[in-house]
Amino acid sequence: MLKGRNSHVRQRLRSLVGVAATVGMLYACASIGRPDGGAYDETPPRFVGSTPKAGGTNVNRTRIALEFDEFIKLEKPNEKVVVSPPQVQQPEIKTNGKGITISLLDTLKANTTYTVDFSDAIVDNNEGNPLGDFTFTFSTGERIDTLAISGVLLEASNLEPVKGMLVGLHSNPADSAFTKLPFERVSRTDSRGRFTIRGIAPGAYRLFALLDADQNFAFTQKSEAVAFHDSLIIPRFEERIRQDTTWKDTLTIDTIVERKYTHYLPDDLLLRSFKEINHSQYLVKSERQTPQKVTLYFSEKADTLPTLTGLNFDEKEAFIIEKSTGNDTIHYWVKDSLLYKQDTLKIKLEYLYTDTLKQLIPRIDTLKLSVRKSKGGTPDDSKKKKKKEDEPEPTVFLKTASQIPSLLDVYGHISLLFEEPVTEYERDSIHLQIKVDTLWKDVPFDFEQDSIGIRRYNLYANWEPAAEYVLSVDSTAFRGLYGLHTDKIRQNFKIHSLDDYGEIYFNVSEQGPVAFVELLDTQDKVVRQVSVVDGKADFHYLSPGKYSARLINDTNGNGVWDTGNYDEGLQPEMVYYYPQIVELKALWQLEQDWNVASTPLDRQKADDLKKQKPDEDKKKRENRNAERERNKR
Q1: Among 14, 195, 517, 549, which residue has the fewest nearby CB atoms (within 10 Å)?
Q2: Terminal Cα-to-Cα distance of the chain (whole angstroms)
């Protein structure tokens, strides 16, 4: 009896174990993901075969099938995968388990080498390990064109690597080829701005880059970012030798074998991308948000102001004009109360306008400007807070923004910004005093209207380091255009001590005849700008912190960086970065030698300043973070 019972129990156990094994196998088959535990898989997928075969000739089929050794997926194929010659109709690219199918919708060209450049779009399904720089090649003719060129694309104004921009070749040397014909061979930049164009036939080519907004592989829109190489490119190759080392263990070399390989040139091409200035001049909009002010907005800067003629009023001496630096935004402040109380102002406006031939021609517009009413309407007077019968009306002052930091730099100044133009002010009503022991003493200062903003006034003085000051302005000191006057102002502030500052001196060489240096913070923002004089760019009174610098060869001497123009064959002005970030402490004086040509342009900008980070670095950080989280569990 006991043997029979034990036999029955063993049969039930074997049955349960079999069920558990079956369930485990089914779960394993259904789950493609990695089970918890163990190190991360960092091995990328491996290409194992294709139809047609890789490097095949006399291919006439438009459907291509690729096979890999594990389950794969495509990341951002529309951005990363590039077919060359470029396809007018976007190819269909799909994944299926361990395979990829490519359907070319354009008719294949005869005797042409085709390349499908996947860049790093192919990744394994589990960990996302990329199969970097994978390219599939075939030819419709008897031979494969194998020449290749490579280089890097940078944003011209700040040397940022440009990701995802087309880089292409034309064998036609005419300037019009870039603007009228699609590229013959094409590639796309990766996250480091690098590019490689493959499958090139022998010959001479012109090299371009294009942010192709309309996807026609030609520079047909002036809003598209572009780059062009000044010289003809002649692809070539040379045989080189590399040494392969095998190791007996981690410390002992077994053998060193020399192997020949083919290296393709040029491999150090540099392109600098830019957007051309939009020279299309037109009136964007006109508005009259308040009765007292008319504003005109233009699309582009202009050398002269438009001519304004009143149709239902006399425009002579009717306005105070406030304009931007480039005359693209113009405010007309109406002087006469009888005029600004009119519901509608009718104006004839004469200005220069860009026609369809890109020529500036005179144009006349008629404007009817009415005050824009608030959507909310006028508040109900009955809901307003009631005041006592003997309570006086509150005084309305001319609004003033006093821009006075509590701790002012020794080279700084004070600004007063008024809500409307000032017609008069009393200089004697402005007082600046310094604290000496316990007493306040008057100090001299200069007070003047800003050279650009007519509603801004600036106060300058020879500030005493570490001293305490007070600025006081009597009431009614300033009177505005519409009769309001200012309230009294009183504000205390201090000046930085010289012990709070450091200095950086750059000894610059190999720059152009006219140049300036911009001091940058760690966010790549400009802190200060100075001209290079006798090879020196000195920055005084700097707060402690980390800095870098950018030098601009100011070809036209206008004090700003200027972009390029393809039609004129004009490259953007050259920009160089000091290749280090320096840390400045109080009372330090740092002297830095800077040869702007000693470091290749694509290696000058420090990684910490770059906004565009390499994708592979991002992936490593993601894996490290995931590993930490997994270890916590």
Answers
A1: 14
A2: 50
User: Domain range spanning residue 559?
Assistant: 501-615
Closest alpha carbon to 294 in 370, 222, 243: 370
CA 42 to chain centre: 32
Pair 168, 157 in one domain: yes
Helix, coil or strand: residue 191: coil
Question: Nearest-CA neighbor of 169 among 112, 228, 117, 118?
Answer: 228
Residues 359 and 408 in one domain: no
The Cα–Cα gap between 18 and 87 comes to 56
Which is nearest to 550 in space by CA: 535, 537, 540? 537
Lowest mean pLDDT among 120-124, 203-207, 619-623: 619-623
Query: What CATH number should be reported for the domain holding residue 333?
Result: 2.60.40
Q: For residue 77, which phi and psi values (nearest 5 degrees)?
A: -60, -35
User: Are both 121 and 234 inside the same structural domain?
Assistant: yes
Backbone angles phi, psi at 580, to 5 degrees: -135, 160
Q: Are 400 and 417 in contact (CB under 8 A)?
A: yes
Q: H/E element holding 621?
A: helix 615-632
Q: List the one residue out of 76, 109, 107, 108 whose CA is nearest residue 93.
A: 76
DSSP 2-28: HHHHHHHHHHHHHHHHHHHHHHHHHHH
CB atoms within 10 A of CB 136: 20
Q: What is the pLDDT of residues 542-553, one digit of tens each?
A: 999 999 999 999
Q: Strands 147-155, 269-273: parallel, antiparallel or unpaired by DSSP? A: parallel
**Identity at 405, one-letter amino acid code:** P
Token pair in block for residue 355 = 């026609």
- Interval 394-437: pLDDT, tens: 899 999 999 999 999 999 999 999 999 999 999 999 999 999 99
pLDDT at residue 142, as a whole number: 95
Q: Note whether 127 and 199 are same-domain residues.
A: yes
pLDDT per position as a tens digit, 43-95: 899 999 999 999 999 999 999 999 999 999 999 888 889 999 999 898 999 99
pLDDT score of 5: 41
Q: State the pTM of this model.
A: 0.82
What are 166's two structure tokens? 């087309």
- Same domain? For 564 and 419 the reply is no
